[in-house]
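Researcher: Go.
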Amino acid sequence: MHSSSKDLADRYCELMDRLPRLIDYTGIVRHMKLSTTEAFILQYLQSKGSQRGTDIVKVTGLTTSAITQICDKLVQEELIERNRSETDRRYVNITITAKGSKILKQLSDISSERIVETVDNFTNEETDALLKVLSQLGELIEYRRSSRK
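Model: Structure:
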């Protein structure tokens, strides 16, 4: 990697790390009466579909008991549901509910509003260029990640 590529990667990572703070993502999540971990789990289930608890443990790095506690709260709030696997009754599948999806949609809408407020002074050309670069970067990262497997 060229030093300029490394600098670009470092600047990108710094910005991606700062962006949630800039739009006060934690505050938005708290407003929705969630923790950031709970929001992450809902987003994970939304994107990956039904998962086992062990899958969530792996992706979060939390303990099984911590995930169980978090899922208990999310079940109580009717944001997820647990169902026994039809193929192997020993396994419990965790699925986001319609109410959980609705909460995520609200979270996304509020976050989007904050981002729009931030880039509101951009010209249409600047906005288009930014979206194009971010899209290309996302595609490149996905391509590189899939080619490593």
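Model: The two ends are 20 Å apart (CA to CA).
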